[in-house]
Amino acid sequence: MKKIRDYEIGIAKLSNKTHTFVFELDDAFFELFGRELILGGKLTANVTLDKTETLLTFYVDIKGHVRLTCDRSLEEFDQPVGVHEVFRIKFGPDNAELDDDLWQITTGTQSVNMAQHLYDYIGLSLPMKKLHPRFAAEMDEDDDSDILIYSSRQQGNETEDGDDSDDEDDTDPRWNALRNLN
After folding, report:
1. Confidence at residue 47, expressed as pLDDT on a 0 to 100 scale
2. pLDDT at 167
């Protein structure tokens, strides 16, 4: 059984140069985080770490597939995943998240756990609408951005130049009262 600490990188003993780490992410990895979002999967995470005196730069590449539940049919299906992310950790007086991709840790920190970062990157790469591949053609039809669903403009009030031709008669009398305030 896998544990969260299986995804730690011991940074204290590393020299100041580039290091490469490979993590296999399978069903046991996703069990560590529950199975609400991702049921399982098989991925490989290649993490390249550039270590300097003051900064750790992590280049994360994740490839493989995860098992999801279709929002429409509730069937399980495999979703391909390809993630390329970079985040940095700098050394400072306390532990803090300074930005989404910049953290600060104390100089005495011995290791960095990559498990949550890997899980978050995978989760953020997934589509909002999880549809089985057999519904892909329907999804393309649903995403037609040329359809106007609602417009606050009234039809027929435009002149040939495109200007609105609001007549004073068509205007709500409350607006006329507001115009008189000027």
Report:
1. 97
2. 52
Round to whole Å and give the CA distance between 173 and 179: 10
Residue 35's pLDDT is what? 81
Distances (CA, A) of 121 to 61, 81, 117, 140: 10, 10, 6, 25
* Residue whose structure tokens are 């409350």: 174
Distances (CA, A) of 56 to 17, 89, 93: 10, 5, 16
Beta bridge partners of 21: 47
Phi-psi region of 142 (alpha: psi -120 to 50; beta: other; left: phi over 0): alpha
Query: Six-digit token pair at 19?
Result: 């290091």
Of 30, 47, 5, 28, whose CA–CA distance to 119 is shortest? 30
With bands split at pLDDT 50, 70 and 90, how would you rate the model's confidence at 30? very high
Q: What is the CA 127 to chain-centroid distance, rounded?
A: 9
Between 12 and 138, whose confidence is greater?
Answer: 12
Work out the average pLDDT over 131-149. Answer: 66
Report, as an integer, the average pLDDT of 159-171: 55
Neighbours of 9 (CB within 10 A): 17
Q: Is 70 exposed, middle or buried (0-12, 13-18, 19+ CB in 10 A)?
A: middle
Q: Supply the pTM of this predicted model.
A: 0.73
Beta strands 55-69; 76-92: pairing state = antiparallel
